[in-house]
Amino acid sequence: MRIIIALFLAFFFFLQSCAVIKITNDGEEVKNKKRIFYVVSGLAPISNNTVKAGEQYEIKHDFLDIIITGFTGGIIYSRSVEKK
């Protein structure tokens, strides 16, 4: 049982950095802040994860992102993108 729990935790630990933001010329313009949702710790985006090129963005985890990810057990993963 300990091995299964250890493998499960390792699986989610290694997938935490898989969330990707696409920057394209025809992407969505971010006014001030945009929240992006992913499934299975960032493997597949649920919401539109493209942003318009030519701007500088900062990717953050705010308090609400932590609550969403924690409440769903890491199945739904949330990130915030802010325009600098």
Note down, in words, how this protein is organized.
The structure is a single chain. By secondary structure, the chain is α+β, with helices and mostly antiparallel strands. It has one domain (2-83). It is built from 2 helices and 6 strands; from the N terminus they run H-E-E-E-E-E-H-E. The strands form 2 sheets. The protein has a 4-stranded antiparallel β-sheet with strand order 3-2-6-5, with helices on one face. A two-stranded parallel sheet has the order 1-4.
Layout: helices, strands, pairs:
Layout: H1 2-14, E1 22-24, E2 33-39, E3 44-45, E4 50-52, E5 57-60, H2 63-71, E6 76-83
Parallel strand pairs: 1-4
Antiparallel strand pairs: 2-3, 2-6, 5-6
* Strand order, largest beta sheet: 3-2-6-5
Supply the number of helical segments: 2
Q: How many strands appear in the DSSP assignment?
A: 6
Question: How many structural domains in the coordinates?
Answer: 1
In terms of DSSP E residues, the strand content is: 25-35%
Mean model confidence by pLDDT: 76
Largest beta sheet, briefly? 4 strands, antiparallel
**N- and C-termini, Cα separation:** 47 Å
Evaluate the radius of gyration.
Answer: 14 Å
The proportion of residues forming helix, as a percent range, comes to 25-40%
User: What oligomeric arrangement do these chains adopt?
Assistant: single chain
